[in-house]
Design brief:
The chain has twelve helices and two strands. Mean pLDDT is 73; it is low at 1-64, 380-404, 409-427 and 429-451. A hairpin with a 2-residue loop joins β1 and β2. Strands 1-2 form a two-stranded antiparallel sheet. It has two domains: 61-359, Rhodopsin 7-helix transmembrane proteins (Rhopdopsin 7-helix transmembrane proteins, Up-down Bundle), CATH 1.20.1070.10; 379-453, no CATH class. Helices cover 60% and strands 3% of the residues. It is globular, with a radius of gyration of 28 Å. By secondary structure, it is an all-alpha fold.
Length: 454
């Protein structure tokens, strides 16, 4: 994701601080980080990495480089980036194992979490360190094929991540606002996930198609050369930023606002029971967790996008002494978004917490209780396409109220007095039918169980 421009023509000039300018149609490299690295005329590195090489006749020792960092600073940055990669890869792999290895965890929401975890782990493993090395050294060591992959995959992974979150937001919206509608089946969920990846591939394909490497004296660069030049490049990346940041965050903002008002906006009329409170509490926990995930993603990526917008407009900032540190900090923050989700799941969801305890049970200070074991192995009741409670209640209502063979008026009268409560209230007491009707559409769905929300 580092953005290192290169020159079409091999002309370099020595700047006042040792940073030359490149003349020609400049291209920037490495996927998502170059979204706002505007290609134009005299354009120094959007990274703050010096992009010039001395002419063959010029002694390298004669050039001073304001972007050379002391060893201690390189060590600190390396430690920071290494920590992100380690936590993101192992944390997200454990999340995938928790969901796929335990039947109780295989819900619609969690299938999307698997897709999100896979995207984040892949981004950290295949992109973060490579881009960090490129940003630090300003030279591409990894060959032409990996150059194409590195320009192509980051946009793909970010697209898959953000739209997995969007799919979860829409699914939560449908489950809470209109609970009586059927939920997505496992097959439909897989189709949605497959569609997300297909769209991601299509969006990122131009990055792969136009990727090139350029070997220059003392340096090899990886970049994207657009056929129609800087204007086409800038237009493409404006579209990308809208599709992978602004638009999905707008959708999630609207859906979670409506869901939040519904869940926290006030008490539901009528008396309620333990089952209702249990479902309401579980729904709130899931929505709270996902809101934190989305807000974390938005905060982590915002400085990164702002950086490239500003440096594209005010290109003189690319020669500022501290611009490389600004870039490395904003890039680190964006990449750190891949490591926070497993931590959030562990802190806010008891089943993920139990799963992480099982994964790290070999640690002497991790204790797995019998309750933790049961959290992943048992269910409160077995959810079917239509819950047994709902089905039995409906059958009882029909039997009691519409039994044509009942000839004893007295028995009939007694039976009508013993009619079970409104099935949609799940056994909860109520004071009036209107209140109960409102409650029933909010509390439960014949297509979900409490397990779906906890």
């Amino acid at each position: 994701m580092a953005s290192v421009p290169t020159a079409e023509s091999e002309s370099w000039t020595d700047g006042a601080a040792g940073v030359g300018t490149q003349v020609g149609n400049l291209s920037s490299a490495l996927g998502v980080t170059e979204w706002f690295a505007l290609q134009a005329g005299n354009f120094s590195s959007a990274l703050g990495v010096p992009v010039t090489s001395p002419t063959p006749s010029q002694a390298r020792a004669n050039l001073t480089n304001q972007f050379v960092q002391p060893s201690w600073r390189i060590a600190l940055w390396s430690l920071a980036y290494g920590l992100v990669v380690a936590v993101a890869v192992f944390g997200n792999l454990i999340v995938i194992w928790i969901i796929l290895a335990h039947k109780r965890m295989r819900t619609v929401t969690n299938y999307f979490l698997v897709n999100l975890a896979f995207s984040d782990a892949s981004m950290a493993a295949f992109n973060t360190l490579v881009n960090f090395i490129y940003a630090l050294h300003g030279e591409w060591y990894f060959g032409a094929n990996y150059c194409r992959f590195q320009n192509f995959f980051p946009i793909t992974a970010v697209f898959a991540s953000i739209y997995s979150m969007t799919a979860i937001a829409v699914d939560r919206y449908m489950a809470i606002i209109d609970p009586l509608k059927p939920r997505l089946s496992a097959t439909a969920t897989k189709i949605v996930i497959g569609s997300i990846w297909i769209l991601a591939f299509l969006l990122a394909f131009p990055q792969c198609l136009y990727s090139k490497i350029k070997v220059m004296p003392g340096r090899t660069l990886c970049y994207v050369q657009w056929p129609e030049g800087p204007k086409q490049h800038f237009t493409y990346h404006i579209i990308v930023i809208i599709l992978v940041y602004c638009f999905p965050l707008l959708i999630m903002g609207v859906t979670y606002t409506i869901v939040g008002i519904t869940l926290w906006g006030g008490e539901i009329p009528g008396d309620t029971c333990d089952k209702y409170h249990e479902q309401l509490k579980a729904k709130r926990k899931v929505v709270k967790m996902m809101i934190i995930v989305v807000v974390t993603f938005a905060i982590c990526w915002l400085p990164y996008h702002i950086y490239f917008i500003i440096t594209a407009i005010y290109q003189q900032l690319n020669r500022w002494k501290y611009i490389q540190q600004v870039y490395l900090a904003s890039f680190w923050l964006a990449m750190s978004s891949t490591m926070y989700n497993p931590i959030i799941y562990c802190c806010l969801n008891k089943r993920f917490r139990a799963g992480f305890k099982r994964a790290f049970r070999w640690c002497p200070f991790i204790q797995v209780s019998s309750y933790d074991e049961l959290e992943l192995k048992t269910t409160r009741f077995h959810p079917t396409r239509q819950s047994s409670l709902y089905t039995v209640s409906r059958m009882e209502s029909v039997t009691v109220l519409f039994d044509p063979n009942d000839g004893d008026p007295a028995k009939s009268s007694r039976k009508k007095k013993a009619v079970p409560r409104d099935p949609s209230t799940n056994g909860c007491a109520r004071r009036d039918s209107k209140s109960a009707s409102t409650t029933s559409s909010f509390i439960s769905s014949p297509y979900t169980s409490v397990d779906e929300y906890s």
